[in-house]
Amino acid sequence: MVIADTSVWIPFFNRPDSSEKRALDLLIDADEVALIGVVLAELLQGCRSQGVTLPITDLLVVALAFEHSCAVYSLDEHFRKIPDLLRYSPTVR
Fold first, then answer.
1. Residue 66: pLDDT band by 50, 70, 90 thresholds?
2. φ, ψ (nearest 5 deg) of residue 39
3. Could you tell me which residues come within 8 angstroms of residue 49 by beta carbon, excluding any fewer than 6 positions away?
4. Which residues on neighbouring strands pair with residue 34, listed in sequence order?
5. I want to staple 73 with a disulfide (CB 3.0 to 4.6 A). Which of 4, 8, 22, 88 is the partner?
6. 8-22: per-residue pLDDT in tens?
7. What share of the chain is helix, strand, coil (3-state, %, to 5)?
8. What are 72's strand-pairing partners?
9. How far apart are alpha carbons 21 and 51 in whole angstroms?
């Protein structure tokens, strides 16, 4: 198993002809690469370059929620800006 750092994922996503992309493709196909929470948080933080930033602690919450298929229960509005994030809404009033 190989843990891929953010510095490898960036060219994977941004440079389709890069050696990093080819190497990660091979690792992914062999089910030999791990994307750990803190790296996912860094990637998410980098993807918010459109003027939206989130505290690293909240990005860690998001990363763990994605990693474990969990919903997030929070009053912070910035969680609404994370695509595909499951948000918990209580039904009690």
1. very high
2. -70, -45
3. none
4. 3
5. 88
6. 999 999 999 999 999
7. 50, 5, 40
8. 87
9. 27
| Three-state secondary structure call for residue 34 | strand
Residue 64 has pLDDT above 80, yes or no: yes
Element spanning 67, H or E:
helix 56-67
Amino acid at 72: V
User: Residue 87's pLDDT band (boundaries 50, 70, 90)?
Assistant: very high
Distance of CA 46 to CAs 20, 30, 43, Å?
18, 27, 5
Q: Which two tokens stand for residue 86?
A: 């499951």
Question: For residues 23 and 9, what is the distance between their CA atoms, to the nearest angstrom?
Answer: 11
Hey, where are the domains in the chain? 52-93
At 52 the pLDDT is: 62
Tokens 């918010």 sit on residue: 48
